[in-house]
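Before the break, one more example. Copy the sequence into your notebook; we will annotate it together after we see the structure.
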Amino acid sequence: MKYKLIIILLLIILSCKNNNRENNMISVNRDEIEPNDSLEYSQFIDTSTSINASFKSDEDIDYYQIKPTNASVMDLSIYANKLDINLTLISSSNSNVININTKDIENYKGFIELKDFMFYDDSYFLKLSSDKEGKYDLRFEFKNDYFPSNEIEPNNNINSANIINYPNELVYGYFLYNDFDIDENIKPYIKNSDITDIDIYKIENDTDINTSINIVLEYSKDIEMLLFDENYNYIKKSINRLNTSFEAGSKYYIALVCFGNKSIMERYTLHYEFN
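Here is what the structure looks like once it is written out:
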């Protein structure tokens, strides 16, 4: 019996190791392939890859086409010493998903990291440029794990609100500085100040139970939370935590307003829970 138990434990350990190998895709090292200064000549990335690259001049633009063979999630990292970089992630439908200028990042120290980016299109293009020549290291890490609750940008107006599907579902997001038009339903209820980003989420009580909930934002900075009903009527506001009734059939929109003029490369988590 003792030996059977040892064999079973060994099989479990080996199985776990094999699963870890499958979930952590093998990474390859490559050099940048020039020319890659247009969408047509973009360098193709289909597996987890580390790239040694450089900007040859202040007019150099580097494109990378991201199309993983078997993955649904990406971590993207850029190491650029103190080089300022413009980063744009473009979907295959030719819409800008993310725009980042490192000059607009709070406490930028030559490193950008975006974690758990979900693939909703077949492929994406990464466009990089700088105002001077210099070297940078680029890392794409693809994962098979599925993260259904990542923020989907853009979500800065009510019509593009992300959905939180159920209580205690954790949603991860970033406050990234961009120029955008403030939703007219929200504008009257926020102060006239610089705004880094607004992220909007939708929740719905599709049960027949009347209850109350706490909406909780976990973040190192104070973020204004505004609550609107399904007809976009303003209800209340608070900082990082908001309590409200949640009647059967009701729908709410939650607007997270980050004031400032710098992107913050720190992830937040958002969820709601029953009282």
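Residues 1-24 have pLDDT under 50 and may be disordered. The CA atoms of residues 1 and 7 lie 10 Å apart. Try to locate both features in your own notes.
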